[in-house]
């Protein structure tokens, strides 16, 4: 129900984080340069210092461009991730946009954009505005809200729209961490693997965030993420409704409930820490070490419900790097629950959420 009639199509922008254009040091350097100079991603450095540090040191070293004789860390990982279809994050994003457009039909105009690199938000938004859409619905491909991801997407959209003479109706989707259809796809994907009881333990591993950012995002100041033992963000209320950590715990609870998992069978943990500051705890890597060394765990099942498609952080970081460490500590195998990717049930879930929001 809208306050005015809509003429023309409704625009939809599906936005994910972004990925390098190619698995080469130059492209990875460009990607990391844009990503890590975002003040919502590294939020504790003055602008000029962030530019110098990221573009002069962090991105060149991480991408390997600073050392022409050795392929750098992130570039090597992207080379392992790359498939004949390119980066999975972009490949599945493109399929999602195409299928969502097909399901929504003529009433809608749908585009995929990436917060960093390509296709850019600027180019996709321009296409929608040029098509004369009556509204734009921004649908970030992050089920849980974080200032560094969803917040940054929304800020970039608002920055671009603020320059327009004609600003259409705008809908900004914040999060969908408990969407029943999304929860069911993750749960069904685990069920389809068969034998949940055969696993020694189940991990729900989310992308981490610096504790500093979690504190800013949760006025309740409960520090639930500082050591992973406090339980104040293990329920969502008005005060912590946008807390990333609280939303992650809520996603875990919903999947666990759908599967009927007892609480002692699973752990929520956080991965992909960058830098020297404390991030949300427990760290996935510490949880794996404890499970292997102290609890004698051999077979683990791992959900990655902060990501809607395969990406570096799932396929490579968990599937290869953590797997290797786990084996060194005496474990045998970490099975990854398949991501949502181009699953028709996930596509239907997105279509349904967009119909409600637009
Ligand atoms: C799912 C939500 C994500 C949050 C929250 C997030 C926060 C965050 N990330 C970094 C630094 C890096 N992240 C990198 C890769 C990456 N991150 C996400 C998602 C979230 N990040 C995705 C989907 C990906 C993979 C993209 C792909 O191409 O497959 C990387 C690049 C890889 C590397 O060099 O290690 C960095 C760097 C920070 C600092 C941060 C919060 C402050
Ligand atoms: Fe990240
Ligand atoms: Fe919290």
Strand content: 5-15%
The SSE order reads: EHHHHEHEHEHEHHHEHEHEH
CATH fold field value of the largest domain? Rossmann fold
Tell me roughly what share of residues is in helical segments.
40-55%
Radius of gyration using CA atoms only: 20 Å
The overall strand count is: 8
Return the CATH class of the largest domain: Alpha Beta
CATH architectural designation of the largest domain: 3-Layer(aba) Sandwich
Q: Which segments are poorly predicted (pLDDT under 50) over 5 or more consecutive residues? A: none
* Shape designation: globular
- Estimate the mean pLDDT confidence: 94
Would you kindly provide a brief summary of this structure?
Pfam families: Ferrochelatase. The chain is α/β, with parallel strands linked by helices and 358 residues long.
Question: What do these coordinates show?
Answer:
- There is one protein chain.
- The chain is of the alpha/beta class and 358 residues long.
- Helices cover 45% and strands 14% of the residues.
- The protein has 13 helices and eight strands.
- It has helices at 25-36, 47-63, 73-81, 88-104, 121-130, 147-161, 180-192, 211-216, 224-227, 244-259, 284-293, 312-328, 344-357; strands at 10-18, 108-116, 135-140, 169-172, 201-207, 266-271, 299-303, 333-336.
- The strands form two sheets. The chain has a four-stranded parallel beta sheet with strand order 2-1-3-4, sandwiched between helices.
- It starts with 9 loop residues before the first strand and ends with a helix.
- The protein binds ligand L6N33NVT and fe (ii) ion (2 copies).
- The ligand C=CC1=C(C)c2cc3[nH]c(cc4nc(cc5[nH]c(cc1n2)c(C)c5CCC(=O)O)C(CCC(=O)O)=C4C)c(C)c3C=C is lined by residues 17, 19, 32, 41, 62, 74, 87, 89, 142, 146, 148-149, 207, 209-210, 213, 272, 274, 306-307, 311-313.
- GO terms for molecular function: lyase activity.
- Belongs to the ferrochelatase family.
- Pathway: Porphyrin-containing compound metabolism; protoheme biosynthesis; protoheme from protoporphyrin-IX: step 1/1.
């Amino acid at each position: 129900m809208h306050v005015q009639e809509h003429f023309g199509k409704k625009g939809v922008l599906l936005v994910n984080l972004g990925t390098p254009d190619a698995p080469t040091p130059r492209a990875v350097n460009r990607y990391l340069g844009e990503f890590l100079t975002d003040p919502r991603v590294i939020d504790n450095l003055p602008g000029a210092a962030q530019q110098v540090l990221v573009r002069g040191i962090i991105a060149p070293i991480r991408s390997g461009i600073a050392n022409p004789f050795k392929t750098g860390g992130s570039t090597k990982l992207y080379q392992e991730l790359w498939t004949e279809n390119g980066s999975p994050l972009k490949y599945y994003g493109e399929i999602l946009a195409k299928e969502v457009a097909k399901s929504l039909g003529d009433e809608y105009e749908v585009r995929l954009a990436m917060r960093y690199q390509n296709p850019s938000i600027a180019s996709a938004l321009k296409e929608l505005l040029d098509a004369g859409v009556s509204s734009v619905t921004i649908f970030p491909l992050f089920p849980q809200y974080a200032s560094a991801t969803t917040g940054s997407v929304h800020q970039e959209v608002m920055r671009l729209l603020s320059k327009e003479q004609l600003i259409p109706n705008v809908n900004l989707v914040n999060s969908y961490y408990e969407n029943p259809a999304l929860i069911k796809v993750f749960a069904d994907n685990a069920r389809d693997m068969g034998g949940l009881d055969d696993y020694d333990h189940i991990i729900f591993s989310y992308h981490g965030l610096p504790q500093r950012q979690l504190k800013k995002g949760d006025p309740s100041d409960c520090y639930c993420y500082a050591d992973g033992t406090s339980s104040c963000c293990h329920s969502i209320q008005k005060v912590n409704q946008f807390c990333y950590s609280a939303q992650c715990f809520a996603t875990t609870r919903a999947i666990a409930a759908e599967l009927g998992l007892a609480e002692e069978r699973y752990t929520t943990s956080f991965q992909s820490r960058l830098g020297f500051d404390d991030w949300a705890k427990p760290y996935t890597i510490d949880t794996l070490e404890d499970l292997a060394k102290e609890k004698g765990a051999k077979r683990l099942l791992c959900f990655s419900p902060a990501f809607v498609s395969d990406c570096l952080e799932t396929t490579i970081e968990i599937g290869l790097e953590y797997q290797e460490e786990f084996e060194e500590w005496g474990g045998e195998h970490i099975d990854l629950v398949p991501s949502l990717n181009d699953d028709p049930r996930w596509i239907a879930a997105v279509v349904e959420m967009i119909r409600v929001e637009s």
